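Task: sequence design from structure.
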């Protein structure tokens, strides 16, 4: 075999092409497995997500063939710790944007572990995703035992009385008077792993700035403190409206920018915001098989 053929062969075996994208700084490594499968276990996903030894991201996303013919694709999601999860709102907008450009469409359906999502490209360049219904029963979130999810008996440091909702993944939102005063990197992991959450939880810290504006920071399950969390923004708006702190539509202000969230009368939650492509590249999956310790 000549050297040119050897290089091509090694490229096919070792390399996996990816796109690095983000929604308000919530960043993703997106892999396309529709034509050829991508072998991605917990350790490999964790290695890709590592910001020193891999590409670096909050979530690794794999685009797969759809289960149903009327959907554009199935989106598989792994958090930075390697674990697979069912929902990620900002990733849904990024992947939907890719697929709509690919198909020359302004609307598509995207399948996820949390269900089917409808996405639309707007004329102003923003992307809207219908994140499906908000789930507020304790079993749906899920919580470890029966309780009123509007007032959850949980305290952590100076915080107490969060509201819990599922947006395809579990969320607890604490409403605080001054978000800058909250030691999120201390409280976040403590509450994420609380016994009340059998599947762990995303922990939101929200400061209501007005009836249509909320400041939000989220400690994401398996990823830590991120610049934005789409499903967390949806949960925060639903939880604020349930507490009558806001209306059913508000701008959620994350560290990385703003999302517009609307909780419709049919219980579906719409999320609108920007998407961006940072760069494209190729990952050497063989080298990334080296062990990378899980995040704590």
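Answer:
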């Amino acid at each position: 075999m000549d050297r040119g053929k050897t290089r091509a062969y090694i490229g096919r075996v070792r390399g996996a092409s990816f796109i690095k994208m983000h929604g308000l700084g919530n960043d993703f490594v997106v892999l396309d497995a529709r034509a050829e499968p991508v072998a991605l276990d917990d350790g490999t996903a964790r290695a890709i997500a590592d910001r020193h030894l891999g590409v670096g991201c909050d979530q690794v996303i794999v685009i797969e063939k759809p289960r149903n013919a009327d959907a554009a694709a199935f989106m598989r999601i792994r958090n930075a710790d390697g674990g697979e999860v069912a929902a990620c709102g900002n990733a849904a907008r990024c992947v939907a944007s890719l697929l709509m450009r690919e198909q020359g469409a302004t609307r598509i359906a995207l399948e996820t572990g949390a269900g089917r999502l409808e996405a639309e490209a707007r004329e102003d360049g923003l992307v809207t995703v219908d994140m499906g219904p908000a789930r507020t029963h304790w079993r749906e979130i899920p919580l470890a035992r029966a309780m009123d999810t509007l007032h959850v008996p949980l305290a952590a440091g100076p915080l107490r009385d969060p509201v819990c909702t599922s947006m395809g993944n579990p969320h607890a939102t604490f409403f605080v008077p001054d978000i800058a005063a909250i030691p999120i990197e201390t409280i976040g992991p403590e509450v994420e792993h609380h016994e009340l959450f059998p599947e762990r939880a995303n922990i939101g810290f929200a400061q209501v700035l007005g009836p249509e504006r909320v400041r939000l920071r989220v400690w994401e399950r398996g990823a830590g403190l991120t610049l934005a969390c789409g499903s967390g923004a949806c949960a925060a708006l639903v939880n604020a409206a349930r507490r009558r702190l806001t209306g059913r539509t508000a701008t959620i202000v994350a560290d990385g920018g703003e999302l517009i969230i609307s909780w419709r009368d049919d219980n579906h939650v719409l999320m609108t915001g920007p998407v961006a492509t940072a760069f494209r590249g190729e990952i050497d999956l063989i080298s990334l098989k080296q062990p990378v310790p899980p995040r704590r």
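Residues 89-103 form the longest helix (15 residues).
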